[in-house]
Design a protein that fits this description.
It is built from 16 helices and no strands. By secondary structure, the protein is mainly alpha-helical. Helix 9 runs antiparallel to helix 13.
C-alpha cells in the first residue's frame, strides 16, 4: 500500500476533476437552493402562521428540536440500508420528500400550525438524509491526495446554486410584504432544487455501489449493522475522535447560522430583502474562497487548513459581539463567508478519509447525528448564557470556547486514510 500523508503535492495522483466529480457536484448545486433560503426564511413564515401567538419563538424552537431528533435517527438507518444497495433510489426519495415539503410551504395560512410543522420536519429530514447519501459518494470518487479539492469543488459549486436561487428569489420577492416575500422565496427554492436534482441524479447513476446482498436490506439489518459498529467503536476510534472535534466546531458555526438573521434584524434593522442581499454577498465571496481553501488544504494539510479557518471564525464572532456601525453587517457576513463553507468542506474531506468506503453512507449518517446534536447544543448554550447574563455579547463569546476546544481535539486526529477509495485502489493496482 502506498504511503499516505495529510498534505500531498497538488499534482499528485490522477486528474481529480472528471465527469463523475462534476456530476456529483451538480447535486450540491441543486440542494444548496434549499439551505440558502428555507432555514433563513421559514421562521418568518411560521410566525405568520402562529399570528402573534405568545411564545412563538418557543414553538419554533420545539419544532426545530423535533426535526433534529427525527433526522438524527433516520440518517444512519437509511445510510446503512443504502450501503447494502439502491443508494441512488434512497437519494432520489429523500430529495423528493424535501422538494415536496418546501413546495407546500407557500400555501400555509394563519392557523395551519400542524401542517406547517409537518412540512418543516419533512423538509429538514429529507434534506438531511439526502445530504448524508450524497456525501457518502465522496470516498468513492476521490483519491486521498485530492479529497480536499473535490469536497471544496462540490461545496463551491453548491454556493453557485444558492446564488441562482437567491437571485430568482430576490426578483420575485422585491417590494412585497415580508410574509409574502418569504413564502415566494421558499417556493423558488423548491422549484430550483427539483429541476437541478433530476440531471444530477442521472449523473450519479454510474457511481452508486452494486447491491451487496441477494435480498433487499431491512431495517433490522440496518439496525444490527449500526449496533455492531457502535459496540466496536474502538476499531474506528480515530473517526470518533474527529466527530468529537467536529461536534465542538459545529456547535459554534450552527449557532451563528441560527441567530444571524434575528441578530441582523434586532441590531441593525435589516429587512427580508436586506437579509437576502447579505446571503447573496455571502455566496459571492464563499464560492471562490472555498475553492481556494481546497487547494491550500491539499498543499499544507487538512488539519492545518482547518485550524487556520478557526482563527477567522474567532475574528467573525468578535465582530458580531462588538461591531455596531451600520456598515458592519457587510463586514461580518464577508468574514464568515471566507470560512463558513470551507470549514464544512474541509471537515467533510477529512472525515471521508477516515471512514470505510463500503459503509460510507452509514458513517456519514453518524456524522449527521453529530451535526444534529451540535445544532441543538450550540444554540441551547447560547440561549442559556444570554439568559443568565442578560447579554447577547456573552452568548456570542461563549461560542469561542467551542471553537478552541474543537481545535484542540482535532490536533489528536490521525489523518492517514484507514481505507482507500476506489480510485486509490485502482491507482495502487496500477503501481
Amino acid at each position: 500500500m502506498r504511503a499516505n500523508t495529510d498534505a500531498a503535492p497538488v499534482g499528485a495522483g490522477p486528474a481529480w476533476l472528471d465527469r463523475r466529480v462534476a456530476g456529483w457536484a451538480l447535486y450540491d448545486v441543486a440542494s444548496s437552493s434549499y439551505i440558502a433560503i428555507v432555514p433563513l426564511l421559514f421562521p418568518l413564515l411560521f410566525a405568520t402562521v402562529l399570528d402573534g401567538a405568545p411564545r412563538a419563538d418557543a414553538h419554533f424552537a420545539l419544532l426545530g428540536a423535533l426535526s433534529l431528533v427525527v433526522a438524527g435517527v433516520a440518517a444512519p438507518l437509511i445510510g446503512a440500508l443504502a450501503d447494502r444497495g439502491r443508494l441512488l433510489t434512497w437519494l432520489a426519495a429523500a430529495t423528493a420528500v424535501c422538494c415536496a415539503a418546501c413546495a407546500a410551504m407557500p400555501s400555509l395560512r394563519t392557523g395551519d400550525v400542524l401542517f406547517a410543522s409537518l412540512a418543516f420536519v419533512a423538509a429538514q429530514c429529507g434534506y438531511t438524509v439526502a445530504m448524508v447519501l450524497y456525501e457518502s459518494f465522496l470516498p468513492r470518487l476521490a483519491t486521498a491526495s485530492a479529497m480536499a479539492r473535490v469536497s471544496a469543488f462540490g461545496w463551491a459549486a453548491g454556493l453557485c446554486g444558492g446564488l441562482l436561487a437567491l437571485a430568482i428569489a430576490l426578483a420575485v420577492a422585491r417590494g412585497r410584504p415580508d410574509a409574502e416575500a418569504a413564502a415566494l422565496a421558499i417556493g423558488v427554492a423548491a422549484v430550483v432544487f427539483a429541476l437541478l436534482a433530476l440531471p444530477a441524479l442521472g449523473a450519479l447513476r454510474g457511481i452508486a455501489p452494486a447491491r451487496l446482498a441477494s435480498r433487499p436490506a431491512t431495517l433490522r439489518d440496518a439496525w444490527r449493522t449500526i449496533v455492531d459498529d457502535l459496540r466496536g467503536w474502538r476499531r474506528h476510534r480515530n473517526s470518533a475522535r474527529f466527530l468529537l472535534a467536529y461536534l465542538l466546531i459545529n456547535d459554534a458555526s450552527v449557532t451563528v447560522v441560527f441567530v444571524v438573521s434575528l441578530f441582523m434584524r434586532s441590531t441593525f434593522g435589516t429587512t427580508v430583502e436586506g437579509l437576502l442581499l447579505l446571503v447573496l454577498l455571502y455566496n459571492v465571496i464563499a464560492a471562490p474562497a472555498t475553492l481556494a481553501w481546497g487547494r491550500v488544504a491539499d498543499r499544507i494539510g487538512l488539519k492545518l487548513a482547518i485550524h487556520l479557518n478557526l482563527v477567522v471564525w474567532i475574528a467573525g464572532i468578535l465582530l458580531m459581539a462588538y461591531a455596531r456601525d451600520d456598515r458592519m453587517p457587510w463586514l461580518i457576513v464577508a468574514t464568515f463567508a471566507l470560512v463558513m463553507a470551507s470549514t464544512n468542506a474541509l471537515c467533510r474531506a477529512l472525515y471521508a478519509r477516515l471512514v470505510p468506503v463500503e459503509r460510507s453512507a452509514q458513517f456519514f449518517g453518524f456524522n449527521a447525528i453529530v451535526g444534529r446534536v451540535s445544532a441543538a447544543l450550540g444554540p441551547a448554550t447560547y440561549a442559556a448564557v444570554t439568559t443568565w447574563t442578560g447579554s447577547s455579547v456573552a452568548g456570542l463569546l461563549s461560542l469561542l470556547a467551542f471553537i478552541v476546544a474543537g481545535g484542540v481535539v482535532l490536533v489528536f486526529v490521525d489523518t492517514t486514510p484507514v481505507v482507500v477509495s476506489m480510485d486509490d485502489a485502482r491507482e495502487e493496482a496500477q503501481t
